[in-house]
Design goal:
By secondary structure, the chain is α+β, with helices and mostly antiparallel strands. The chain has seven helices and six strands. It has a four-stranded antiparallel sheet with strand order 4-3-6-5. Strands 1-2 form a two-stranded antiparallel ribbon. The chain is elongated.
């Protein structure tokens, strides 16, 4: 957790001096820290534009979240795997696959698929919506817990593609012409898009907004809209 993520004066939290209050601004590319740099000014080391917060972070996050919520419905309703045998075709969705493994006695595999392919995307969507909503309101409710929640989202997000990997593996292995053929269904594309969109939403969300009040967000937005000063003589802090 970087300096500047703590908001001084919150109830129940020890007051801490923020990097923004000290006039420090870190480059997101080379990690150089500059003192009294203007919003949008290029970094004196690598030329990357400096910002106290990610530009349009909440707008981009909401756009990706809304798209992910829309795609979440077909991802769970449309078949992700189509199995064709001598006895006909079987269309399996994520939940029907979970039910099949559970009834067949594969409780561990059913639990893994259910958690990784159903609960994890749902958890990420719910958590990101909560974080974005509270950050947009400048809420001071449970800020340390919200910061930890964001890090949890980053950790578990890598397991969200389990279904895509399983279907891709089966499609490549089980291709016995005349007996059994497995193909990926359209649901797997919708599911993959949900995973990608939630990843983009997580990357677009600036966790430092968790520690900003509504007034600070307005001040940062006003600074961002002001043209950057041509001030390259700053020395790294």
């Amino acid at each position: 957790m970087s300096a500047g993520e703590f908001q001084a004066g919150d109830k129940g939290e020890a007051p801490m001096t923020t990097a923004r209050a000290m006039g420090l601004l870190a480059c997101p590319h080379c990690d150089a820290v500059w003192r009294d740099a203007a919003e949008g000014e290029p970094c004196g080391r690598c030329g990357t534009h400096l910002h106290t917060r990610k530009p349009y972070s909440l707008s981009r996050t909401w756009a990706f979240l809304i798209a992910a919520c829309i795609m979440y419905i077909p991802a769970n309703l449309l078949p992700v795997m189509i199995t064709r045998t001598l006895f006909g075709a079987q269309y399996d969705t994520i939940l029907s696959g979970v039910i099949y493994f559970w009834v067949s006695g594969g409780y561990g595999l059913a639990a893994i698929i259910f958690i990784a392919s159903f609960l994890v995307p749902l958890f990420k969507l719910t958590a990101l919506i909560l974080l974005a909503l509270l950050a947009q309101r400048g809420s001071s409710w449970r800020r340390p817990e919200r910061a930890r929640l964001y890090h949890i989202i980053e950790i578990i997000g890598r397991w969200s593609m389990l279904d895509v990997f399983v279907v891709s593996l089966l499609t490549g292995l089980v291709q016995i012409q005349g007996f059994a053929v497995i193909n990926a269904g359209v649901g797997i594309a919708a599911f993959g898009s949900v995973v990608v969109l939630t990843m983009l939403a997580s990357l677009s969300f600036d966790p430092r907004l968790t520690w900003d009040s509504r007034q600070e967000q307005r001040e940062a937005e006003r600074e961002r809209r002001e043209p950057a000063r041509d001030n390259r003589e700053h020395k790294p802090a």
